Amino acid sequence: MVAQVGRETGAVVAALVCGAGLLTAGCSAGGASADGLPGTGSPAAERVVRGSADALLRAGGARVTSTMETVSGGTRVAIRGSGEYDFRRGTGRLRLTLPDAAGEGHGPRPPVTEILVPGALYMKNRGAGVPADKWVRIDATGLADGNLVTGGATDPLAAAELLRGAREVTYRGEARVDGVAVRHYSGTADLAAAAGAASARTRPVLTAAEKGFTTRRVPFDVYLDGAGRLRRVSQHYRFANGSRRGAAVTSTTELDHFGRRPEVALPPREAIYTGRIAATGA
């Protein structure tokens, strides 16, 4: 079964993905989807994965590394990011490196700075006609994907709390992530169940995603350390993208240096851009 995001989001859902030249067949924002993974798992494995968000809340904060990789028409491109996140406040700051503009040979785009807060995303150096010294504010609860893919990096708390809806979880065995011993699980996350079990900070964006997708399953691979904390989580999506094959999108979040709780300041009101934003980047 294939899930599709409602058409009402228009170009907003593809704000960074399309703007960076990732969705090449018309950059249609309609048709985002999640593919299911086969297999069944145990209730015990489901409980372990669902509890990983609580382990992050106990940890307080962490350093974040993210990759959002898109494969479309034989082309593979990625947006990479790094920064810090405070799970107790639901706030963070990331710096994203965008790929060359649709392979046009102009070199890497200037990095984009993102500030993540409950229910909203602030972006600086957004492009698309926005002055370089201005920020753009996006209401994540108004996006059909709840900002699971829109910003080019999934909010780490949303990525973790999506796992509260884990289903069909299978334990894959032991592995290592950056030298740390971890346990690998795979399965699917039910958006409606995740939204119902999420914290007050994350529930509105997961509810938006649950309403925006016509089916609710999001496949994942997750790696947990001995304390039950996420070391790596990959969540897999598919966009129709105006073609038969569409585009596969994998959002991967890696966490380490637990305990760090960064102070994240919002941009001043005068620094927020209120003018017209183009549908795609320059």
Topology, element by element:
Layout (H helix, E strand, L loop, with lengths): L31 E2 L9 H8 L1 H8 L1 E12 L2 E12 L4 E7 L14 E6 L2 E5 L10 E5 L16 H7 L3 E12 L2 E11 H7 L5 H10 L4 E8 L5 E10 L7 E10 L26
Antiparallel strand pairs: 1-11, 2-3, 2-12, 3-4, 4-5, 5-6, 6-7, 8-9, 9-10, 10-11, 11-12
Helix pairs in contact: 4-5
Structure description:
The protein has 282 residues and is of the alpha+beta class. Helices cover 14% and strands 35% of the residues. α4 (191-197) packs antiparallel against α5 (203-212).
Strand content: 35-45%
* Element-level helix/strand string: EHHEEEEEEHEEHHEEE
- The average pLDDT is 81
Distance between the termini: 35 Å
Main sheet attributes: strand count, strand direction, barrel closure: 12 strands, antiparallel
Fraction in helix: 10-25%
> Stretches where pLDDT falls below 50 for ≥5 residues?
1-16, 18-39
* Radius of gyration computed on alpha carbons: 18 Å
Give the number of DSSP strands.
12
Structural class: alpha+beta
**Can you count the helices?**
5
What is the 3D shape? Answer: globular
Quick structural summary:
Helix content is 14%, strand content 35%.
What are the salient characteristics of this protein?
282 residues; twelve-stranded antiparallel beta sheet; single chain; alpha+beta
